[in-house]
Amino acid sequence: MSEANASATRITPGNALRPEDIALLETKPADAVAQYALWLGDDALILAQRLGWWISRAPELEEDVALGNIALDQIGHARSFLTYAGRAWDKTEDDLAYFRREPEFRSVHLVEQPNGDFARTIARQFVVALYQWELYSRLVDSSDPTLAAIAAKAVKEVDYHRDHSIQWTLRLAQGTDESRRRMIAGLKLTWPYVEELFTDHPLVNELGDIAVRPSSLRSSFDEAVKLVLDEADLELPDVPGAIGGGRQGLHSEHLGYILAELQVLAREYPGASW
Amino acid sequence: MTGGSTTGDDGAKAPSSGPQEPREAWPLWEVFVRSSRGLSHVHAGSLHAPDAQMAVRNARDLYTRRNEGVSLWVVPATSIVTSDPDAKDQFFESPQGKDYRHATYYTKSEGVKHL
Fold this sequence. Notes:
The complex is a heterodimer of chains A (about 270) and B (about 120).
Chain A: H1 2-6, H2 19-23, H3 31-52, H4 61-88, H5 93-98, H6 118-139, H7 145-173, H8 177-190, H9 194-197, H10 202-207, H11 218-232, H12 254-268
Helix pairs in contact in A: 3-4, 4-7, 6-7, 6-8, 6-11, 7-8, 7-11
Chain B: E1 28-34, E2 42-48, H1 52-63, E3 71-76, H2 88-91
Antiparallel strand pairs in B: 1-2, 1-3
């Protein structure tokens, strides 16, 4: 781990961090650190691809822009994490995003879940944003300076994603009978995928204070959820957890379709640019 | 108009409850952005939002993503009283030939400073 500590002399918390800076790092992250960066980068990348679908399809133009902005923030986080991970294996962010196969992706099942209607997307955003906020708030104290710097930039953006999803959860839950029905249905479809976010994995044991232990985030996540659900007069969905396995490359049937759309252009025309 | 086709719904279909009312558009809000400390808020444009809180958030997304501002105001468009565009001639008549409206028309009295 001292190798990871020694990296990133040009990267200090508080500096606005760009993927281009990360690509220029002289030292490489250890393999385990890169694997961890892949977890977080893949979550952000797949979520961004899902959210991008909404552009031109949201209830109003303003929501097209809001969801599009959130997707762009997530792509920014994905670029940083994937660039950093790629340093370990001499790969670029594009190599990792466009030329890995489905079992090589490490994203959780939650981010693959279909958009459904607007309420289901908001339910997914609610869970992702609260989780990512707890995660990045802790990752800023990582002993790996690059991960800490990526988290420091991301946490401010995710704070807004959290606010956006909470505002909509409250409004849908307390709007019309129809919007409330859809919000309840959306939460119920989303909740089976919550457990995987907080499941520990042997990789985290290897990483010590470089990574954030997923299970350690659960209680603050639950408290934050409860505050919103209480205000919205919603019940915590009572549904069993799904199997998960995203961190081992085991995915639901959805990811293949997402990757087909995400990767087709880069694979059809390698090196394409515009 | 029936069904919720504008939501991209591919899962949770509404129970069929007959034809639905056409969806009401969200109210219009006017957006004012202060670009830096010390300057006034300047009208930047307008947007739709269901309520005031969401209007501020939408304004942030639409008008301040590229460092345009340090402060935002949103005002319900209906709260703004405007001059009548048809009364332009009477309202904004040219001041030409009415030099007395400008202070330069008067001869400054002797000994008056700072005028």
